[in-house]
Amino acid sequence: MTTNKPIHLTTIQNDFHRPHYHYVPQSNWMNDPNGVIHWNGRYHLFYQYNPYGADHANMHWGHAVSDNLTHWEELPIALTPTPNTADRGGIFSGCIVDDNGIPKAFYTGVNEAYDVQTQFLAIGSNDLVTWEKSADNPIIPLLPNEVGQTNDFRDPFVWQADDGWYMAVGSRIDGVGGAILLYRSDDLTNWTYLNPLWVGESARHGYMAECPNFFKLGDKWVLIISAHLVLDTGTVLYYVGDFKDNRFIPESDGVLDSGYYYAPLTHLDDKGRRIMWAWVREGRDQDHFVNAGWAGIQAFPRVLSLDSQNRLCMTPAEEITTLHTNHQHYTAETATSPLAQSSLSLDIQATFNIEQANRYGLDIICSTDGSERITIYYDRLTETVRIERKYDDGNTGHDTYTQGLIHTLDADETLDLRILLDGSIIEVIANQRTSITSRFYPTRADETQLAVINSTSLLSLDVWNMESIW
Ligand code: DQQ
Q1: Gap between the Cα atoms of 413 and 97, Å rounded
Q2: Which of 39, 149, 206, 461 supports an S-S bond with 230, CB 3.0-4.6 Å?
Q3: Hey, how many other C-beta atoms are within 10 angstroms of the C-beta on 290?
Q4: Dmax over Cα atoms in the chain, in whole Å?
């Protein structure tokens, strides 16, 4: 077990790069959301968590609870590795289902080297605080033969159908690419392998497929995968199609997010909403975040839907509006010069008419001389949403590459940009369907200004300061 130098909690909590309305634990490393569930009227969020430092090691399941999707209480760690068993090296990602009133968690247990990965079951108390591992673990100890030799076999996603329970597990097929393996069970303990649900090509989809989600949305089935090591770190893809005879038949696909948004996990809440969570990675060198004493943010929960062209649409859960304060509204006439903000925690909605100019968007300027800024814009000629990040010269060890994702507007469609800025996270969603998430660590928090790019084409700009959830 590795333990990092302890950092005082007050230092961590005064760090203005920490978010005010996105979930983070009090300290240490967090990555994937796990086992999110709406249980007895409360939202429970579990997540990959290292209790001993701000690096990816010693994986446990952390736990937080909320009555309203906005304010969170951190609870005791839910799942801990057990020495001398197949989960001794870490409790990797997974999900929770409601088995007739009994909460059941599925996760991947790993050894110290992470090269033996097997599927585990744990049964929860009614408040989801304590968990007992099944005596039958590992419930899936071996990969099916047809998959060949791979040590990558993780992130079970379980759902109930009329004829039993199904599980999708992330994996890969040697020499081919990522694969999602499909299993079936009557009792959630004994599982039978059926066939691959989806197989990728390594050149396009990366080395392996992590964290599958498979669910019905309207009349269609949606598969979400985290394509490991696409664009160096990973990108999230989605497919929309049909599910027949245990086979997924994709009809269309897209990039769900091409930024720092990874390992999303979805669940249905009691209002019937398909809610999506995700880990937002760091955009700075490891020594920066280890010294800061915390790493990783949960994206603000998004509600999923399909539009008439079966594109996956996502909007921040409407509960976000309960945190709105100090509303500012601008138009082309009033947004001609930089707009001073007193905060790095903003919800921004901007709408533009697309005309002859090439660029439309916003500069978030973080220093009065303009030397530190994030520029978020739509490039009309290349039909791309881009994010550029510029730091003061002394601010090194932070990512500065330009991010971009193709965004095709329909005929006569306006450009709608939704931007959630919070400390060092920026979530950008264009027209509810093109998402790029970013990280930016300015030197100051008190000089923020917004400058509209091509303000003559602006139809409206609404900015809200956000109340802190802490
Ligand atoms: N993170 C977990 C794995 C998963 C990966 C380990 C995705 O279960 O495949 O922390 O970020």
Answers
A1: 40
A2: 206
A3: 17
A4: 68
pLDDT tens across 424-462, in order? Answer: 999 999 999 999 999 999 998 888 999 999 999 999 999
**Is the pLDDT score of 336 beyond 80?**
yes
pLDDT at residue 410 tops 60: yes
Q: In this structure, what DSSP letter does residue 272 have?
A: S
Identify the pLDDT of residue 232: 56
Return the SS3 of 89. coil
Is-contact 324 449, C-beta < 8 A? no
Cα–Cα dist 93/245, whole Å: 27
> Residue 176: which residues within 8 A CB-CB, separation 6 or more?
199, 200, 201, 202
Domains plus CATH for the chain?
Answer: 26-316 (2.115.10.20), 321-466 (2.60.120.560)
* Mutational test site, ligand 1, from 29, 154, 208, max ligand atoms within 8 Å of CB: 154
Residue keyed to tokens 């976000």: 320
C-alpha to C-alpha distance for 260 and 258, rounded to whole angstroms:
7
pTM to 2 decimals? Answer: 0.96
pLDDT tens-digit series, residues 191-231: 999 999 999 988 888 889 999 999 999 999 999 999 987 65
Query: To which H or E segment does residue 13 belong?
Result: helix 9-13
Best CA proximity match to 299, nearest among 329, 256, 239: 256
Does the pLDDT value for residue 143 go beyond 90? no
